[in-house]
Amino acid sequence: MRCVIARYPFDLTKNGVLDSMKGVTPELITGESVTIGRRRYPVKQVGEVVTRQDRRDFTSGEVVRAMTRLGFTCHEHPEVAPVVSALTPLQTASDLLGRSEPLNE
Predict the structure, then answer these.
(1) Quick one: pLDDT at residue 104?
(2) Is the pLDDT of residue 8 over 70?
């Protein structure tokens, strides 16, 4: 598939992207990301590896469009880790029932 990233045309294929990203360790995701294989990469990292251009030369939107057209799943925001509750199961149940203090027996 032909696409334009940072005003330069590229002929990208799904297998070509998979091969390019093979063995590349994903960086910390702080914004948009794309799932390639079983890993999730920042779109700027993928764009840099696939196009061999500096990240400042292209936008994440250009890479997201190209990866979506190739059939990869793109994500807008990083996954947020679930909030771990410091409450005991009894306190959690009491809060869910609307009591401020658990009953002592």
Answers:
(1) 60
(2) yes
